[in-house]
Amino acid sequence: MLLLLSIHALRAAIMGDLNQTSRINDVLYTIHRDIAADLPARELARVAAFSEQHFHRVFKKIVGESLHQYIRRTRLEQAANQLMFDHNRPIIEVATKCGFSSLSSFSRAFKATFGCTPGAWRRADRPTEHPPYLEDTEIAAGFMRVQARSLPSPELIHTAPLHVAYVRHQGYGRSIRQSWQLLQVWAREHHLEFDRQYGLHHSNPAWVPLARCRYVACLGIDKPRLRRGPVNSMTIPGGLHAVFDFNGRYGELLPLIGKIMQDWLPGSGFKMKTTPAVVHYRKNHFLATDERFELSVQLPIALV
Length: 304
Description:
It is a single chain. This protein is an alpha+beta fold. The chain folds into three domains: 2-64, no CATH class; 74-129, Arc Repressor Mutant, subunit A (Orthogonal Bundle); 155-303, Multidrug-efflux Transporter 1 Regulator Bmrr, Chain A. It has helices spanning 2-33, 41-48, 52-63, 67-85, 91-97, 103-114, 118-122, 137-146, 176-189, 253-264, and strands at residues 155-159, 162-170, 197-201, 214-220, 232-236, 239-249, 270-272, 277-283, 292-303. Strands 1, 2, 3, 4, 5, 6, 7, 8 and 9 form a nine-stranded antiparallel beta sheet that branches. It starts with a helix and ends with a strand.
């Protein structure tokens, strides 16, 4: 009898954690849909269907940092991208587009995070030019392999909004395989084909440590799913994308994305939008036994 009760209690606890994760996923989707929007905690708590006080506790437990810290860090990472790859836009406009109300507050927050002013960052007068991903020996080896490789000419396409089922993952490395396996099991249980695989790269690993990079494993589906659980659904925005086709092996993808940002984007006549880059896998190196990939990197862009 005691064993039966403990099993029921354990199952209830697991289901409670999954329910909390699903609700926080809805909040994260709201945040990333428009990072410049006003994002008051009371409204986000309403999205999660929690009281505001309980929402703050659950968000920190699930995400690993407070709501304020998460939004601030995400906005600063977006601003760092915009400053590096859109040299013509005034800094105050970058600050406003990334959700900061004043140049002074933006400059203080930026320097506290990146160790230099926004202007110095834009001039490439940064404290270090050593990308954090080079600390991973396999990615560093991949970086050396792709440096002499020329980028393919991108195809410019307008993509339609895409319904996906997804699993969020923090950290970039082989542990991402676990999220893909979870999504694979979910697809099998729901009798869905596992042939439309996408990855969202929320973070730029050129300056975000790999352990803090945010990645989303996604499976294309025909319509949104209302039932929530370990796997949720959302819509990836459509729009103009520069599409680069690549083949390679584990360790090479992040350096290749870095080459797009550093070698192609600055002289392209386009600017990168604040929505994340999308990787469309034809062969997924996180699931393939030989760890090789065939994929397209879809960079969301707009005219300068």
